[in-house]
Design brief:
Belongs to the bacterial sugar transferase family. Its EC number is 2.-.-.-. It comes from Cognatishimia activa. With about 450 residues, the chain is an alpha/beta fold. It folds into 2 domains: about 230 residues, no CATH class; about 190 residues, no CATH class. The chain contains 20 helices and 12 strands. A 6-stranded parallel beta sheet has the order 4-3-8-7-5-6, with helices on both faces. Helix 17 links the parallel strand 11 and strand 12.
Amino acid sequence: MTYQVNIDTSPIQSKSDLPICREVLGRRIDNLYTREAISRILAPGRRHVAFLNAHCANVASQDDMYAAALERADMVLSDGIGVEMAAKMQGSRIRENLNGTDFVPKLLIEAAKRGQSVYLLGGKPGTADAAAMELQRRIPGLQVAGTRDGYNGAEDRSAVKAINQSGAKILLVAMGVPLQELWIDRNFDGLKAKVCISVGGLFDFLAGNVSRAPVWVRQARAEWVWRLMMEPRRMAKRYLVGNLTFLARAAVWPYLQSSAERKTKRGLDIVLSAGALLALGPVLLVIMALIRLESKGSPIFKQVRVGENGRRFTLYKLRSMAMDSEEKRAALLATSDRDGVCFKSKADPRITRIGRFIRRYSLDELPQIFNVLKGDMSIVGPRPALPEEVAAYPEKAKGRLAVKPGLTGIWQVSGRADIGFDQMIDMDLAYVRSRTLLLDAVLIMATFRAVLTGRGAY
């Protein structure tokens, strides 16, 4: 009997007016439909795929190494009704529940059609073998390149060597949270498999070690109740204490994000930007006059940028380039000195003489004080990106849009344009996850040193 799976291929339509959820309790998710996720996972390139459910979020809140591994994963898919409920509490929505037990076999059906082999790592001795046999029974044509248990067989060096020698394109790792994500994160660079996926209890279900809930229970979104009934002693802490803890955190999360701390941050933005405007107003006027003397045209440059939750706004800067700079930008993209989608060139011919000076000391950013006063930006936050840059973002990078962009931030004080795109994203996501008023104060103080040294400013 073959494994029958119906994958919807109809045009994707919104099921709600709520915005698409991009994070749950500060954890990034790639909110996709099944067919979108399969297409992206099997696209050219390498990727680590993880899942986020209530238990994962609870563990990540207490385990910094696991939380960092999730941030570094290329894709994090939503798993379970808990994540869906948390998204609704945040005023957003989950497109589809992509729990690994159902999703991974669907992915392997498509992989089999493309002739891509799979390697199974994890479980007690014999479990991966039994799971592989069941997958091949259900999915005709599926190539299993090898199996290895998650105990003695999981030793990093020998396991990586065996997996690479097998030629497998897809690696499934079933060691439980957080061991499986940490194993992939630790060994990803040494693996040749194109796709590495942490799959939790999938092997146990396939091997018959654990009974799967009946279809009607799954359709009622109550599979966790079934697992609790099957293994009450082992699952009580996870599903009773854990789920209640997760939902309690989800219930208060929106209030924490719009709490007195958020209002205080806005108040500080207003006070600091107003004070800066009073103190630096004369300097701003002098620079504007110098710009106007060197080249014709307005000394203020306006540009559409993308802010919090993808909202577009007009950003103000002192013009540091010739008036026709935007028309010449496309021709200069190949000269970028920076990896990734954000263009930066040390020898940009469009920059004027006064422009190089004000860029060196970040004086070109002064008009953004008005953006802060308007509420488009904050003093501290990720730098606002161009719409075309956001359009080219990998899903992971979109997490930086969860907060207002800022005049300064971790990236700005760490080297600015000398920092590569991927590292910049990691820094921005770290800020989004850990932002506090104390961190903002530290970054503001560090900004003065960064401005004076001029590192990465060009």
